[in-house]
Amino acid sequence: MRKLLKVAAIALVTVVAFFCIFVGWQISLQYSRFEDRTDPQLGSLIEGIATSDALWILGSSGQVVRINRRSGERSLLSKGTIDIVADGQRLWALSKTAEGSWQVTDLRNPNEPAISVSRDTAPIVLFSTSAGPAVLTSNKVLLPAPDGWSPLPLSETIFEGATAFSPSDKVLYVGYDHGEFGGGLRQINLNNGQVSIIEDTPDSRQTLQSCQGLMNTGCDPVVRIMSDPQQPDCILAGTNQSHLGMYDGVVVKVCGQTLAPVFSRELWTLDKLTSGPNRTWAFNTLTPVRNGWVAVGHTRYARAAYSAASTSPKIKMSAFPRLGDLGNLKVSKDIDGVIFVETYCCAYYGLKKQRWIIALPVMN
Questions:
Q1: CB of 352 within 8 A of CB of 30?
Q2: pLDDT in tens, 288-315
Q3: Residue 212 contacts residue 276 (beta carbons within 8 Å)
Q4: Please, are residues 172 and 190 in contact by the beta-carbon 8 Å criterion?
Q5: Which of 115, 69, 118, 70 has its CA nearest to residue 90?
Q6: Residue 25: what are its φ and ψ, rounded to 5°?
Q7: Entry pTM
Q8: Cα 344 to Cα 286: distance, rounded to the nearest angstrom
Q9: Nearest CA-CA partner of 208 in 158, 272, 200
Q10: How far, rounded to the nearest angstrom, does the alpha carbon of residue 363 sit from its chain's CA centroid?
Q11: What sign has the CA pseudo-torsion 214, 215, 220, 224?
């Protein structure tokens, strides 16, 4: 009997060992396969725009390329780029030169002279104003001036990894995406440099553990900020949380210190059977497009369209369209003013990179 038990134990251990080896082999194959799909020139695709004849895309490699929409031919436009901003007929790029200094260039008008930024400046993000491009750094804002820049010192430090948008020359909104640690929204007064936190209630910090309220600094990562199509002095901010079973995505309208939810889509989960918190559809980014916006998730997207006849947008959820080949990328056709592009991003539990879709607004 003991012999049989010993043989059975050895057999069980052998089976478990072979199973672990097999699973590890499959994981390594999957990791390699996903890694191979990351674009060799651009890396993960970060953001971009589309025009009638080309795609303009910034990658995690810091390179910006222009891809001809007919031939798929690529043209390298810049290196060392950390941000791009579309502004009418211009596409501003904030890049580090080979000499180590920073500059702002117009990628759609390459004959325009570059705007130099001081070598000792550590820029974080680029944004547009009525007078031209501006640069946000950790301790000041560089506003455009006839002789270069007009520095505005800030009352608080701004950290890397921020997204920013200025709906007027009076205010700048800055959002942080710290994943499961939240992030929240900041407002910078462009007259005096005062930085303030924007949350739904003055005491919302007390609701940190339950993550109540809108734009909770400790719970809500901000993935993108854009202009409100109906009220240009206001903004829309997309918040997204997807971590350990928590799924929450909300588009929030911000007017000064006033916050209001614009969109969220409730998910059916087992939490409902136990009176747990409701979960909403999580999205990776919020992109301004013609007459509205697009929120992009892992398997589908929400398209919002605004009209003069209604105070609320018409929002439709859809699966991603079929993607074709263009310039070694997987790209959709123009779908109501937006083009979807496949990328692979963000290590998932350290094993592989996830398939993501980014949305490129079609500009004039």
A1: yes
A2: 999 999 999 988 999 999 998 888 899 9
A3: no
A4: yes
A5: 115
A6: -65, -45
A7: 0.84
A8: 18
A9: 200
A10: 19
A11: positive
